[in-house]
Amino acid sequence: MSERGKELFNRLKRVKAILALIGESEDSHLDCKEWPSDEKSAQSLLAKAACGFANAEGGVILVGMKARPNSKGEPDLIQSAAPVTDASAVKSRILDLLGQIVEPGIEGIHVAKVNEKAGSKSGFVVVYIPAADGPPRRSKKDWKFYVRIASGTLPMEYFQIEERFGKRPPPRLELHLKQEGITAALHLSPHAPVRWLALSLQNLGAGIAKFPSIRYKRAAAVIVDPQSPIGLSRRATDNEWDAFRGGVDDVIYPGETRKIARLAQQSRNTGIDPDPRPALGHLGASGQTIRAFDAINFQCEISCEGAATKTVEKAIPEESVAWR
To answer: Which structural domains are found in the chain, ordered by start?
Structure first.
């Protein structure tokens, strides 16, 4: 989901939030609709609105609200609630229709019903339509391409359609940082354990990620394991950052996860263990100490050809272990 679409979809799962829209204007991410009584009108309305968002930045169709402009040329103003009589039935029908009335199909749609009152069938249906990758989507009801611009859904111009058909689907790289346990590592810390982290990149987009890159801020006591394979070339950088960048042959295909490096966090001694029982398979009932791994705020920047650089943060909690 886009950030705006995610925020809207999640917020509008409550009746109070829906009714609070009354008096507000529709915008490029919100389109309010009354559900038509006849099937033909319902299909046409839904296909046009879904295509409009898919061919733009994505957004939310809110079924069960009345919106009209106060005067010609002004954005539609959300005027009142117009709940559907059976929110569950309308939700099911919308899910069925969206796979039939838009070409090509739209992936990642989310639909939720919001009952008007506890125990009632009437209510609202909230539909999230994500921005679509690749070619433009068109309505199979009138065979037109639509795009959401400001508060209106308009037929696409020829140049807009041509541009979208020539546009390749983009890659979408995401951080994958997985904890792999705590063990001894004699080559790094002969007398104390280390906490292992697997650093990877996942391509969740529909396009190939070329020249993938990740750089992250160095955290206290976290180093790259020199004995583990490296998935992308490690680049020289300053004291604050570690960086890995791919060359012309380093591509990450859609659905692929590329392991970049194995990271090790060293521990610190916090004192003698009051419980003398052996821990982590280490024999002996005396001389154990508590080793602590500090919390990590992992901050990184991810980029590749055809996608904007994005900043990602992930928190790794602190952890302690008894060690002999």
So the answer is: 3-165 (3.30.950), 173-323 (2.60.40.10)
